[in-house]
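Hey L., structure's done. Input below.
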Amino acid sequence: MSIWWSLHLPRESASVPLARRLLLGTMETAGVDPEISYDLSVALSEACANAVEHGGGADGAGGDYRVTAYIDGDTCRIEVTDSGPGFPRRPSRPDRGDWAKSPQDRSPARQPAPAQAEHGRGLFLIEALTDRVRYRDRPGHGGVVVSFDKILKWREDSLTGV
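Output:
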């Protein structure tokens, strides 16, 4: 089975739950295991929140961001694309095979957030809740694409007939 959808959303906090609800509804209708759906919805919420907060122009302004989700067989891929300044260049990380393989691929500079901090955990959560994460700048367009995959498990009554 293949399903995909794409949304163009305003960089407003109210857009985050919209994307999350659409994903959860699609997953439930397709018959994806609720725990897997929940993990993906949290990862999507974090990626959208980052696009809303960081995905605009240098002055903090910037119109919208895009969310695209694909279910292809037993894998779900979600991409969140913004129009912000992108990640600063960092050296590749040999311990994370998918980071910084090409000049357009960047790994965000991150440190664990202090326990009492209200921000700074989003990228860590995305990595913890999904099977593969990629970060890349959009050369010539500005912005970043955060892409993540998760292997799906299906309910007994799913559309896949499993």
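Residues 34-54 form the longest helix (21 residues). The two ends are 11 Å apart (CA to CA).

-- N.
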